[in-house]
Design a protein that fits this description.
By secondary structure, the chain is an all-alpha fold. It has one domain: Peroxidase, domain 1. The protein has nine helices and no strands. The longest helix is centred in the middle third of the chain and has 16 residues.
């Protein structure tokens, strides 16, 4: 993660504290869930969560609001874990038949325009609830979704179609993010 994305780790830490099972902030999580359809409303209600992001590029703020809404959509039941990209989480624990059933939805997600992502990811995140996901990586991936090399989509595809019989692929080098 580059210095300009140093805010991502602390941001994810604040998100995970919101869903602390011993003392969840249900109101903030509800506002974040509503933010999937109304990002401006999210900033008006829980803007304090985004203080580190507000003076950054629009792509950073959009990615943070979307990821926070998705996190809240799972009510924190999609645990934060390093090196688990969305593709890997989306294909985790599935039999080959089940994975084939999810393939169409996943390829539509990979082909999505950045404006389609909130709707498609909201649907997809319900299917990974209870699975681990690297939320910081999700944010940086969302910021680079429209990169010309499509390195994010390639990384997610490797994660989804990787099986235990396949040798693990080396991680994609970090490309420049907004």
């Amino acid at each position: 993660m580059s210095d300009r994305n140093a805010w991502v780790g602390p941001f994810v830490g604040r998100l995970t504290r919101l869903a602390n099972p011993d003392n969840p902030d249900r109101a903030a999580l509800a506002h974040l869930r509503r933010g999937l359809g109304d990002p401006a409303g999210t900033l008006a209600r829980v803007g304090w969560l985004f203080n580190d992001v507000l003076n950054r590029a629009d792509t950073a703020l959009d990615a943070a609001v979307l990821a926070a809404g998705l996190f809240a959509w799972t009510k924190g039941r999609c645990e934060n874990a390093s090196n688990v990209n969305f593709g890997k989480a989306f294909g985790a624990g599935l039999s080959e038949d089940d994975k084939k059933q999810r393939e169409k939805r996943f390829t539509a997600l990979l082909d999505a325009d950045p404006t389609e992502l909130p709707f498609l990811l909201r649907q997809a995140v319900t299917l990974i609830e209870g699975t681990s996901l690297d939320w910081a990586a999700l944010i940086t991936h969302l910021m680079s979704w429209d990169h010309p090399d499509r390195w994010v989509q390639k990384d997610w595809a490797r994660g989804f179609w990787w099986t235990s019989t396949t040798a693990e692929q080396p991680a994609e080098s970090t490309a420049a993010t907004e």
